[in-house]
Specification:
Two copies of one chain form a homodimer.
Chain A lengths: L17 H17 L6 H11 L7 H10 L6 H13 L3 E4 L4 E4 L10 E6 L5 E5 L1 H14 L2 E12 L1 H7 L12
Parallel strand pairs in A: 3-5
Antiparallel strand pairs in A: 1-2, 3-4
The structure holds a DNA duplex (30 and 30 nucleotides).
DNA sequence: GGATAATTGTTACATTATTACATTAGTTAT
DNA sequence: ATAACTAATGTAATAATGTAACAATTATCC
C-alpha cells in the first residue's frame, strides 16, 4: 500500500511503490517506540509483506511468503503480530476477506473511513468523509447506541477495472474467497 | 428476530416474539413461491432457528440446534440453506460475527441498512437512512467505484445494556468471537 | 412412467483462528 | 555481571468456519 497517491483515490495499477517503504517503516518505528515496544526483524518483515502488496493479504498468505523467504513461523505468531500492527493503526483488517492491508493515511485518532475493495485488481482505497461520521453519530445517538467498533466496507470495481473489463473477471480470480 | 417492534429500535430485551413467527413463515412461503422454489421442512426448521433468536447465530450453532432436535445435518447443508435464505433477503449475515439473523423489515429492493450489534445482549438492530445511501453513492461516484456489495456494521452497547451495566459484561461473553 | 430439475446426503478437505504452555531475548536494577 | 523482570517468539495441538465433488433422493411436468 502506497502513501504517495492522492487522498481518496485508487493508485494507478501496477505502479512502483518501493519508494514508500522507508517512510512507512520509519513511521512504524516511531509508533512502536511511543508504546515502548520493539519493531523486531520479524515484525518488520511481516509489516513489509503487507506494505508491498496493494491487495489485502491473509494470515496464511503471510506464512507462505515467510516460508519462501526462508523462515517458517506458526499461525499464532502471524496473528499475534497482525493484531499488534492493527492495534497500532498501521494495518487494517477487511472483514469481507479476513485479510489485512497497510493503512497509508495518518489517521491517529480517526477510525472514520470507508474501505473500497476492488474485486478486479484487489486494490483497497480508503475514503474519509466527515458527512459519513456525522450521520452515523446522529443515527446511533437517536437509537441510544454506544459505538465501539465500526466496519464500513464496499466491494465492487474500481474505475480502471470497470473500464478495461466491463465487469468481466479474466485476469484474476474473485476476491471474495 | 421480531417484526413487532417499531422501526429502527432495539426491542425490549426478553420480550416474547412467538407471535411473529407465523407471519414470517407466511412471508417466506410467498418469497419461495415467487422464485418457484420450495420452503421444505428442513429449510423451514432452519429459518425458525434464526427467527427465534434475537442474536445472530452461526452455521455450526444451527447444526447443534438441529442435532438437539433430532436431525443431524452436514455443514454444507446448513450453508446451502443459509445462502438461499440470504439471497432471498430473509436473513442477513454479520461479517463481524460470521453469523446470521432474520431480517424483520420489508426491504425488497433495498440493501441500504446499518446493522447495530449489541455486544451485551447480542441483539441486532437495523437502521435505514437515505442520507447514508446518498453519501455512499456520492463518494463512490467521485472515486469512480462501482458498488456491488456493502457492509455497514457497528458493534457497541444498546441503551438498556449500557444503562444496566455501565459497559460491564457480566451476563454474557463478548460477541466478537 | 420417464425425463428433468430441485433438494439433500456423503465424504473429505480447505481455510481461518485460538489455547496453553515453554523458551529465548532484551531491559532494568543492583 | 547477574538476578529479576518483561517482551517476544516457539511448539504442539486443536477449534471454528467454510467448500468441493459427486451420489442419492424427491418433486414436477410432460
Amino acid at each position: 500500500m502506497c502513501n504517495k497517491r492522492s487522498n481518496n483515490a485508487f493508485p494507478t495499477p501496477g505502479h512502483n511503490h518501493k519508494q514508500c517503504l522507508n517512510d512507512a517503516i520509519d513511521k512504524a518505528r516511531k509508533v512502536f517506540s511511543l508504546r515502548k515496544l520493539r519493531l523486531t526483524p520479524l515484525r518488520e518483515q511481516i509489516y513489509r509483506q503487507i506494505l508491498t502488496s496493494h491487495d489485502a493479504i491473509g494470515a496464511y498468505d503471510i506464512l507462505d511468503r515467510m516460508r519462501r523467504q526462508g523462515r517458517e513461523i506458526a499461525p499464532i505468531t502471524a496473528y499475534r503480530i497482525l493484531d499488534l500492527l492493527h492495534d497500532m493503526g498501521l494495518i487494517h483488517r477487511l472483514e469481507l476477506q479476513n485479510a489485512y492491508y497497510a493503512c497509508y493515511r495518518d489517521h491517529e485518532d480517526d477510525k472514520n473511513f470507508i474501505a473500497l475493495i476492488c474485486r478486479g485488481c484487489g486494490t483497497i482505497a480508503e475514503l474519509v468523509d466527515r458527512k459519513v461520521s456525522r450521520v452515523f453519530e446522529a443515527l446511533e445517538k437517536e437509537a441510544g447506541f454506544t459505538e465501539e467498533k465500526r466496519v464500513l466496507e464496499v466491494q465492487g470495481l474500481c474505475r480502471s477495472c470497470r473500464d478495461s473489463r466491463k465487469g468481466g473477471n479474466s485476469e484474476k480470480e474473485p476476491l471474495n474467497a
